[in-house]
Amino acid sequence: MQISNYGSFPSVIPVIIEEEAFMYPFMITPIFVTDEANIKAANKALEQNDLVFVSCAKNSEEQKKSQNSFYDVGVIGSLMRKVALPDGRVKLLFQGIAKGKIISIQDENPLQALVDVIIYKDYDPEKINAIMAILREKVIALANISHFFPPDLLKAVDENDDPNRIVDLIASALRLKKDQSYKLFSSNDTEERLLLLIDFVIEETQTQKLQKEIKSKVHNKIEQINKEYFLKEQLKQIQKELGVDKQRDEEIDQYFKKLEKIKPFMEEDAYKEVKKQIDRLSRMHQDSADANIVQNYIEWVLEIPFGKIGKKKLSIKNVQKQLNLDHYSLNKPKERIVEYFAIRELLALRDKTNNKGKGTILCFYGPPGVGKTSLANSIAKAIKRPLVRIALGGLEDVNELRGHRRTYLGAMPGRIIQGLIEAKEMNPVMVLDEIDKVGRSMRGDPTSVLLEILDPEQNVAFRDYYTNFNIDLSQVIFIATANDIFNIPAPLRDRMEFISVSSYTPQEKEEITKKYLIPQELKKHALKSEEISFTQEAIKLIIEKYTREAGVRNLRRNIATIMRKCARKILESKDKIKKTIITPKNLPEYLDKIVFEIDSIDKENKVGIVNGLAWTSVGGDVLKLEAIKIKGKGTLTLTGSLGDVMKESARIAFSVIKVLIDSEIIKTPAIKPKKSKKTDEETQIYNLYDIHLHVPEGATPKDGPSAGIAMASVIASILCEKKTRSDVAMTGELTLTGNVLPIGGLKEKLIAAHKAGIKTALIPQKNYTRDLKDIPEEVKKEMKIIAVNKIEDVLREILV
User: Fold this and answer.
1) Which of 268, 368, 646, 691, CA to CA, is 20 to 30 A from 498?
2) Residues 70-94, buried b or exposed e (16+ Cβ, 10 A)?
3) Per-domain residue ranges for the chain?
4) Residue-level pLDDT at 221
5) Which residue ranges traverse the bilayer (predicted)?
6) Which CATH number fits domain 316-500: 3.40.50.1580, 3.40.50.300, 3.40.630.30, 3.30.1490.20?
7) 185 vs 191: CA distance, rounded Å
8) DSSP percent split of the chain into helix, strand, coil, nearest 5
């Protein structure tokens, strides 16, 4: 189709403004129009069966508002078809014929313009052919790295001889900007158009090469990672090319700043180790496995509070005040704690240069529930330092304390370093709970680490496996707690000073209940003192009949049980109930059953029953030793789940009583003479009877060096057929020569005797001289305590 078939030019024809891109001659293209002006121009052209001029808008938002809003060049063509679409748009099928240029606007409703055909200048065929060869070469190079040119287009470019037609074909395939397309449209110089297009092709080739290079950098990762990861990596590479990926560098800079801030408070080897790891991280790829491990290490280490020290001045007045506020009785432990901090306060006043207090490690030991851990809490509260509690019960893995080496998966610092991080200070109060229950296994012996932690000479340079440098723990106040110090290894015991926190007497428990437990539980259960109260007799009954302990833990639970039931009663009652008063009479309504801690003594004196005193890990206890004699040959039978030490004590006691009978120091019943060949020794009473000695509660293992005089007394009673005093209890070990040896746990034993209603206690002379000052005054006031040196002294008191 030729333009000459449509008459002469210039000619006035309707104008349609296309929004997206330039049209090219000899193309059949659909055009979608919604603008009223474009629709009117199309209708005008179709009515006259005439041509239409299609131009391109410079700015789609401003199109058709003025002559400057669209380009003055475009394509002259005919409209082959017009179809109205359901969404309100109109589809025009346009066929381009020739390029044209607007000379002037003739009408605006519809838009019509005087348009002339663009005629190209003559050119030198040889020169143009040379330029065409270069263009074809550049197009082929671009086609090899892009998808712009389909094979049919490349074939048309290769076979066509018209240079202007070739320029239009290539330009239509390239995604040129509007300004670039305008330059090609507006020029009628063939050589200029070819050279301009070559520049555009070269520019596009460079762009495609850069994109291909970026894609190749992430090609290896796309096989291992999903599509989302590939897109992220591609974005990272683009950002790297643009120089905007700075997040990782900022993190490294932050690490260096934190390190330099704490450098004055770190040892040289610690600073070098952390700096080395930060440098190593900066050289690593951020997605490598090692980078994650190193980054975790740096973040852990930089959390250690180097240089952060609690500045609160020590004051023994504050310590004493807080201890008295939180705890009743416990005079000796509180006195020793005040002395401990008195030394620290004096050092701080007189030795300003020495900030490292190499003090003693205190260890509170005693039965459960007597206030060992709460004493440590009060210390932390008094000196205004954070409290860190490390439970050691059942700990077997040495790495729990010393940290895991960084080569292991999931490695992290030990509990000591984590405690410092948690406290955010280098001098917290650190409580090592249940130090007597540390285990040993194939993973190491944690007590060996505790030796280093608790030794003031060694903990100035404690090395955690994870951090891999020394940390000063000398300013940490370590306080240990234990139930039984004999379960602690001897080298570890040597590092600590033990403070006994022993059993409470019934009177002390009454005061603790009134002053501490009831007010605290009222607050926990949202009750008021006007709603519930306890009588003195009810408190005494709960202590004596409903609890079985040395401390006050079960006592607190029983009080909490009563208050829960009271709270429920308040909520369920529709009417306002009166104040609930807990008395011995209504106590069974709130507590289930009575648990006797210690059996009360028998009121009647009996033969073959003696009260012995024992020490257990939960306090003292009264054990009734029983014996009977059976006709036999003088053997001794022992029952009651006794340990080796108590079995030996029984045999020694039997031998001692035999000696006393032989020497007639104690008298046995007269034996009727029988006609027999046996000698006088063979007719002694202990050879005519078998002795069976039993310690009740046979399911409970019992052992210890303190039952000798009680066993001797019960054997003497059964052989001499003399009754024993039921209100007397005793404790002490016995030698073969009849001497009474000292024992341990005297305070707990006498408190247990006091609770059982014992009126007289027999104890070794050395314990009487050494330990009597530690016995509570109410126990000494209500119980007669007699010192004994020999077994004869014991038998004189016990046998009736």
Assistant:
1) 646
2) bbbbbbbbbbeeeeeeeeeebebeb
3) 3-117, 125-216, 251-303, 316-500, 508-583, 606-667+681-798
4) 59
5) none
6) 3.40.50.300
7) 13
8) 45, 20, 35
- For 169-216, the three-class secondary structure string (H helix, E strand, C coil) is HHHHHCCCCHHHHHHHHHCCCHHHHHHHHHHHHHHHHHHHHHHHHHHH
Catalytic residue ranges: 706, 749
Give me the DSSP letters along 681-735. Answer: TTTSHHHHEEEEEE-S-TTS-B--TT-HHHHHHHHHHHHHT-EE-TTEEE--EE-
3-class DSSP assignment, residue 155: helix
Q: Do residues 47 and 19 touch, judged by C-beta distance below 8 A?
A: no
Residue 368, annotated as binding a ligand: yes
Q: Any idea which architecture 508-583 has in CATH?
A: Orthogonal Bundle (1.10)
Distance between CA 537 and CA 543 in Å, rounded? 10
Percent of the chain residues topping a pLDDT of 70: 90
Q: Which helix (H) or strand (E) holds 380?
A: helix 372-382
The whole-angstrom separation of Cα 245 and Cα 460 is 44
- Tokens, residue 40: 């009117």
Q: Which ranges of 610-681 does DSSP label H, i.e. alpha helix?
A: 644-662
Q: What are the two backbone dihedrals, phi and then psi, of residue 86, each rounded to the nearest 5 degrees? A: -60, -30
The whole-angstrom separation of Cα 280 and Cα 255 is 12
pTM higher than the cut 0.85: no
Exposed, middle or buried by CB within 10 Å (0-12, 13-18, 19+), for 213?
Answer: exposed
366 is in an annotated binding site: yes
Distance CA 73, CA 54 (A): 9
Domains 316-500 and 508-583 share a fold: no
Q: 247-258: b or e for each residue (b if 16 or more CB lie within 10 Å)?
A: eeeebeeebeeb
| pLDDT over 90 (residue 427) | no
State the residue for tokens 């009954």.
Answer: 541
Ligand-binding annotation for 14, yes or no, is no
The burial of 318, by beta-carbon neighbours within 10 Å (0-12 exposed, 13-18 middle, 19 or more buried), is given as middle
Q: At the topology level of CATH, where does 3-117 sit?
A: 2.30.130
**According to the annotation, is 65 in a ligand binding site?**
no
Q: How far apart are CA 291 and CA 281, in angstroms?
A: 6
Assigned CATH for 125-216? 1.20.58
592 phi, psi to nearest 5 deg = -70, -60
**Using the 8-state DSSP alphabet, how is residue 237 labeled?**
H
In angstroms, the CA 672 to CA 658 distance is: 20
Residues 6+ apart with CB under 8 A from 577: 569, 570
Q: What is the pLDDT of residues 198-242, one digit of tens each?
A: 888 888 888 888 887 777 776 655 566 566 667 767 766 776 666
> Does 370 carry a binding-site annotation?
yes
Is 528:566 a contact under the CB 8 Å cutoff?
Answer: no
Please count the CA atoms within 13 angstroms of the CA of 83 that sit on its side-chain side: 11
Structure tokens at 584: 């011995």
606-667+681-798 carries CATH number 3.30.230.10:
yes
367 marked among binding-site residues: yes
User: Among 46-60, 225-239, 558-572, where is mean pLDDT lowest?
Assistant: 225-239
Judge whether 172 and 27 are in contact, CB under 8 Å: yes
What mean pLDDT value characterizes the chain?
A: 83
HSE (side-chain half, CA atoms, 13 Å) at 409:
1
Antiparallel, parallel or unpaired: β 462-463 and 496-500:
unpaired
